[in-house]
Amino acid sequence: MHIGYIIIGHGEYSVGMFDAINLILGAQNNIKALTFEINESPDELYSKIIQSIDELNCDYYIIFTDILGGTPYNTAALIAEKDPRIEVITGANLPMLLEAILRRDTTTDLNLLKKIIIENAINGIKINSELIKKSYCETNNVDNEGI
What we know:
- This protein is α/β, with parallel strands linked by helices.
- The protein has six helices and four strands; from the N terminus they run E-H-E-H-E-H-E-H-H-H.
- It has helices spanning 13-25, 42-56, 71-82, 94-103, 110-123, 128-140, and strands at 3-10, 31-36, 60-65, 86-90.
- The protein has a four-stranded parallel sheet with strand order 2-1-3-4, with helices on both faces.
- Helix 1 (13-25) links the parallel strand 1 (3-10) and strand 2.
- It is elongated and about 55 Å long.
- GO terms for molecular function: kinase activity.
- InterPro entries: Bacterial_PTS_sugar_comp, PTS_EIIA_man-typ, PTS_EIIA_man-typ_sf, PTS_IIA_man.
């Protein structure tokens, strides 16, 4: 099962994510970053997504978008409605994308892969002060509530 990934966001968001992925994991296959610029129409973005799908030529696709309800999400969702090989996941962040890339060759169940991706995205969001507090409590065998 070959899974292609397309990252789409407002402005250069997707390009920044793509660059970070390549910095951390090295160059990756079957992944594209598309921008949605202020002077672009939804129809132009639609065409870019279709072109990327054709170029990637995979069995399945996950399109990652920046925000629910934005033009990148809405446009990708329109395409996904017509093609059962495509899933759209919104709220893309770097932990989510890294996990998706690292797992796509070892996870053969697309539904499980989507679940893992979402769980990793959620688990990747932390508040530093709470991490420090937890670490202190574990190191000093102190009840978390007493701090």
